[in-house]
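cron nightly-structures :: item 1 of 1
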Amino acid sequence: MDRSYIVSADGWYSSFYSEKQSDNLNDIKNYGIKGKIPVHLSVSWEDKAANKYYDTNIVMPKTLKELFDNTYIANKKYTFSSYIIELENDKQHALVYLKTKDRTIKLLRFKGEPSSKENLDFGTYKYAREIEYFIP
């Protein structure tokens, strides 16, 4: 991902830029950024081989808070959790995971909406039309 932007239910937001990407989820490093459970996600990336850009808005699953609470506050002990966005090989689709100390949970899959590199405003991104949720 080139950029991602998250918004929580109470309006908290943060944006992230990535310069290094990995094909292996286990290579993803935690940079210690603390945040809140997202209800909305915006992502932007470039498929360099095809010279195409994708800018997409995604609404997160309504049951994400319950899933997060059940995995984060396990046995009254807080554990590290993070959200990971992974591009598929076709560079058009992406997967979103919740990664905890013990497991990685696939949350959703979506197809990016084509854009241009000049589109730098997250507010103008199109919403994903092809989205598949994996949690109830």
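cron nightly-structures :: done
Residues 3-133 form one domain.
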